[in-house]
Amino acid sequence: MSTNQATVSTIQRPKPPTQWQLFYRTFCANKGAVLGLMVLVAMIVLALAAPIIAPHDPYELFTGKEQLPPMFMEGGDKAFPFGTDDAGRDTLSRLLYGARYSLFIGLCATILSMLGGISLGLSAAFWAKRWGKAVMLVNDILMSYPSLLLAIIIAAILGPSMTNTIITIALVCLPPFIRLTRATAMVELQRDYVTAARVMGAGTPRLLFITVLPNCLAPLIVQATMIFSAAILEAGAIGFLGFGVQPPDAEWGAMLGTARQYIQSNVWLAIFPGTAIFLSALAVNLTGDGLRDALDPKLKQVS
């Protein structure tokens, strides 16, 4: 009987959850992260589907319809659900198309800063004496400046355009990636598996990008979500100040910059793009919190 009971208990014992199952379970346990991811996905879908769902062309001027209030306010028009701007262009259509600019700028700037930061951080950790000290000295100097002030200076030097805005934000967001990559890589370089890879004759590129980098990705992914949120805010601030995407292109920061002179009289012109920037940054931050909980082994809940 004891042998049969042991056999039955062995058969009925559940399999331990895989890493992906643990990740999914921990991420879904964070309701705020799930909500943030849903909002972020919805914004991406709306941005991609803007040519289909936008009620009007974002550049079309409707003469005599300038600064119409939203349709739920007195004087509104059902043909323009969110009203029109100072030139008579549909605000809802410009918001949908503006999501393309703002999210694209944030994504491209995050990817560029992540690639550059990982490369410089890994090299600074591997060659720590001279090259590492030089990289960290420049990195500390950049981090000593307020990010927005540094972004304005770089944007003013490069000139206003979407490409220059991406370059500007990527440079401003580079220092956190360098610092985090270097700190994580220096810990990993002391591990036994790195010593074993060196003994087996692994070259420097293989040692850095194949052996060490995969073990540094978890904190870097979380950092990327935070940088993505910051990049959206930086793009909005640069556009608001007139150094980013230029009118008549529909970008949320540029829309805010155009609306600032009408804030006291027609406040809705600033409310809608400002709310879009706020919601996108909040959604990315909430998603990043969920990723941090799911990727940190100390925070995973095994049940």
Automatic annotation (TrEMBL):
The residues covered by the ABC transmembrane type-1 domain are 99-288
Q: Which GO terms describe its cellular component?
A: plasma membrane
Membrane association type: Multi-pass membrane protein
Q: Does the record carry Nucleotidyltransferase as a key word?
A: no
Principal localization reads: membrane
Under InterPro entries, the record lists: BP-dependent_transpt_permease (IPR050366), MetI-like (IPR000515), MetI-like_sf (IPR035906), OppC_N (IPR025966)
Q: Which SUPFAM superfamilies match?
A: MetI-like
Q: What are the entry keywords?
A: Cell membrane, Membrane, Transmembrane, Transmembrane helix, Transport
TM segment ranges: 33-54, 103-128, 148-174, 195-214, 220-245, 266-286
Q: Name one GO molecular function term.
A: dipeptide transmembrane transporter activity
Localization in the cell: Cell membrane
The protein's matches in PANTHER family, at most eight in alphabetical order, are given as: D,D-DIPEPTIDE TRANSPORT SYSTEM PERMEASE PROTEIN DDPC-RELATED (PTHR43386:SF1), OLIGOPEPTIDE TRANSPORT SYSTEM PERMEASE PROTEIN APPC (PTHR43386)
Q: Family per UniProt?
A: Belongs to the binding-protein-dependent transport system permease family.
Protein name as catalogued: Dipeptide transport system permease protein
Species lineage:
Bacteria, Pseudomonadati, Pseudomonadota, Betaproteobacteria, Neisseriales
